[in-house]
Amino acid sequence: MAVFTPLSDAQVAEFLSHFDVGSLATLEGVAGGTENSPFFVTTDRRELVLTLFEQGEHEELPFFVELLDYRDEHRLPVPGPVHDREGVALHSLSGKPSLLFPRLPGRHPLSPSLEQCRVLGDTLGRMHVVSQHFPGHRPNPRDLNWLMAMHHRVLVYLSPEDQALMKDEVEIYQGVFGDAPPLPQGALHGDLFRDNTLFEGDRLGGIIDFYNGCTGDLLFDLAIVINDWASDADGRLDAERHDVILRAYQNRRPLTGPEREVWPTMLRMTALRYWLSRLLVVYVYPPAHDLTPHDPTQFHTILTARLTHGALPLPEASNA
């Protein structure tokens, strides 16, 4: 169960009275979150999601509201937060920051079809084109600077071989990205795994969970997607899913020459980013609640597969 702060019907009914969304009919805790307390809220007029923020930097929440509002205004498939009658989205409920969202249709794709991959690539390309003009700024909290600062904290828990692997990789990333020309920048999702999308069949219902949102290299976002959506169980890239996502993406935003040059290294760096963050949760910063951390070995497997087999050739954009 992922509801850490329970709410009563009376609390939520009073909360909803500030919004033009109707009267509470049902309230249901959602057993799906890992950091926050989500609830499905049904009124006599619509279905909503209420989120209480349990962890993280609460002063950064206005950035996420602005980012979601911006993408919603540009007709991207994201849940723009519901604003109250005074135009305010961010509230406090039971002593926790809270946001109300429309409930989007669909389910997480466990094994994405090629059409789902195409739709995701197209949507991410659209999102990145729009996001290059977003005026907000929040530095990427999991970029190369974070890797350099944090990887030392897990080395004692690794085998000598994995210690050498991690240290060598971080040194390589410093050389590649330190000398690379500036890459295209914009607002990122920052965590666009399959379980942060909702599909009804092959139709995208929406992209959710923007709380790793930040600004930085657009290529970083794309590499996260490829490592999750196009990797097989052994970590190797599936050529069909890989090419479908990247062709659809580049129909919206073709990759630049510098992006193409550093692409294989970016795939490795984003794999190490998740290997390291999951190691930190297991060994250094255990979750505040009784939750099972994600297995770090998944991204160790992906990283070693990228090193062993390399990146696949980047396909060209094609409107066919």
Model description:
The structure is a single chain. The model has no long low-confidence stretch (mean pLDDT 94). The chain is built from 9 helices and 9 strands. The strands form 3 sheets. The chain has a 5-stranded antiparallel sheet, with helices on one face. The chain has a two-stranded antiparallel sheet with strand order 6-9. A two-stranded antiparallel ribbon has the order 7-8. The protein has 2 domains: 9-102, 2-Layer Sandwich (Phosphorylase Kinase, domain 1); 114-309, Aminoglycoside phosphotransferase (APH), C-terminal lobe (Aminoglycoside 3'-phosphotransferase, Chain: A, domain 2). The chain is an alpha+beta fold and 320 residues long. Helix 3 runs parallel beside helix 7. It has helices at 9-16, 61-73, 114-131, 144-150, 160-179, 218-229, 239-252, 257-284, 297-309, and strands spanning 24-29, 37-43, 47-52, 91-93, 96-102, 185-188, 197-200, 203-207, 214-217. Strand 1 (24-29) and strand 2 form a beta hairpin.
**How many discrete structural domains?**
2
**Which class do the helix and strand fractions yield?**
alpha+beta
CATH topology of the largest domain: Aminoglycoside 3'-phosphotransferase, Chain: A, domain 2
Tell me the distance between the termini.
45 Å
CATH architecture of the largest domain: Alpha-Beta Complex
What is the count of helical runs?
A: 9
Read across the widest sheet, the strand sequence of neighbours is 1-2-3-5-4
